Amino acid sequence: MEIKVIGKRTGISKKSGKEYLQVGYLAPAVNGVGEFGDSLFLDPSEYKYEEIAIGKKYNAEFNRQGFLQSFKPL
Fold this sequence. Notes:
Helices cover about 0% and strands about 55% of the residues. The chain has no helices and five strands. The chain has a five-stranded antiparallel beta sheet, with no helix packed on it.
């Protein structure tokens, strides 16, 4: 699915104590009109905060259970 990154943040989870990377994005609305905003979590060991660009489009692939499989710039 083609998405447009509109925000990002990083931090340490209070629950697990592990670092996280969260990305906010807009994607085409499913069964609707316009775009829908959502967020996803990326593994900070695989994706660098500095390399994710606000306003840039990415291809996000999800499996049947809704888990992220790949996240690549377009």
